[in-house]
């Protein structure tokens, strides 16, 4: 049985992840931590969690807790992951894996040296939509993949959003590593890695056009995968309208889907169209948590390794390296 302790029982854990730890087989949530003691107690009360803490070290060393879920902002991922590893406890860490690539690599190295299991919460890998997408590509339903094109745009944040502490940290490079690109692009880039593997070349440009906050608010870039597939992406977080589209172009057709707003895959081959629809998940991390539990118990492979999580951090940093 995996007895989980959550470090950082904030909004992301209310529905997306937290309840799933007690819903998957061989798993239960036994302790939560938040620096605000009253909020930690309230969370434990509402979710029927036996114990709560206001100190991460106390949770990590709780003798009943044998696995740690780190759900704090990226700036503290490295600190808490290393502490859990030193305590000999496996780690499930939120994305992005750390504040930067160097911090992510420190976690990779520490876990390898201590022989402690670490899984990164790139949970879309276990969604039925993306499992089906991978299956369709393996079946070569659109022939050989040539090109992947992504457009992801969001309007600029409002004054109220920038003043809301629940949201504002995502725009602060000292806490999030960057702006919304660092917060949202890891989901997209990890699926590309999951589908197409390692890259040979990364090129990108990032800059701040809108001046609403300190982080970059627009990024464009290209990836050349080792298998010859080319990716071209653009992310703009000060656009007039939202857009979330990804198209995979093959030698015999194309596949279109959305990473965040869609629940379907559309396949086009000549005049023939096929659509695959998927029901929304109530707890979006539940399939990934289920696989992580089986991995921690020794019954399944790691659904997303620390090295893979660190590699996505490298992609992010390289895409943002050149400044306009």
Describe this structure in words.
With 324 residues, the protein is an alpha/beta fold. The chain has two domains: 2-124 and 286-304, NAD(P)-binding Rossmann-like Domain (Rossmann fold); 128-279, Dihydrodipicolinate Reductase, domain 2 (2-Layer Sandwich), CATH 3.30.360. The chain contains eleven helices and 14 strands. It has helices at 37-46, 56-60, 77-86, 101-114, 128-138, 159-163, 165-168, 173-176, 180-196, 286-296, 306-319, and strands at 2-7, 27-33, 51-53, 67-70, 91-93, 118-120, 145-153, 199-207, 218-225, 230-236, 243-250, 254-257, 264-269, 272-277. Strands 8-9-10-7-11-12-13-14 form an eight-stranded mixed beta sheet. A six-stranded parallel beta sheet has the order 3-2-1-4-5-6, sandwiched between helices. α3 (77-86) packs parallel to α4 (101-114), α4 (101-114) runs antiparallel to α11 and α9 (180-196) crosses α11 (306-319). The protein is globular. The termini are far apart. The model has no long low-confidence stretch (mean pLDDT 96).
